[in-house]
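Dear support,

I submitted the protein below through the web form. The confirmation email said the job was done, but the results page showed an empty box. After a refresh the structure appeared. I'm attaching both so you can tell me whether what I see now is the final result or a partial one.
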Amino acid sequence: MARVFAQFGLAIALSVQAFMVSGAQAQQASPPIIYQPDPDSPIEERNPKAAPELGEFDFVIGDWDANITWQAAGRPPLNYTAHWHNHWVINGQVVMQEWRGPYINGAELRAYDASLGKWYGQNIYPSSPVPWHKTSAEFKGGRMVVIVEGVKDKRGPYLNRETYFDIEADSFRMKSDRSYDGGETWEKGAYEMICTRRPV
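What the results page shows now:
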């Protein structure tokens, strides 16, 4: 009988150990991306008759694995992976960037205004407290700079600036900054990411 209890105790100990290991692995692994049905919408092409400045956003077109580092105040960095499906819509004149991540899904629309010489658009994330955000963007010195308006935190409203840099054929980087004084001064934002093109 003692031997049976000893074997039973060993089995329980091994089960608990396996559970703890699997739990630790689950914490280290990136959570699954929110379900998105296939097939994807086609990438298509930029309209050749549109303003040549539309080529400034060519670098994002395609399917990307985005590796994000999120640094919330007072917390350790959170690292995870998302899928970015970026393509031309509306007769090849508007960029649609569809974000599919483990925590949020949404889309960002970009259109070029030749009269202003810059891009304008909307970020749409339905599950966010504020689902719509107006955006503008300019391509400067080999970098794309996107300004997102109407963002808030405990300190109040701020401008969120996303700068895309180190742009290559199959990769690019992005960092975020924020301004609480209308763009007069900037400080480091909460997130950055490295995007790598998915194999076709």
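Response: this is the final, complete result; the empty box was a page-load delay. Confidence is low (pLDDT under 50) at residues 1-26.
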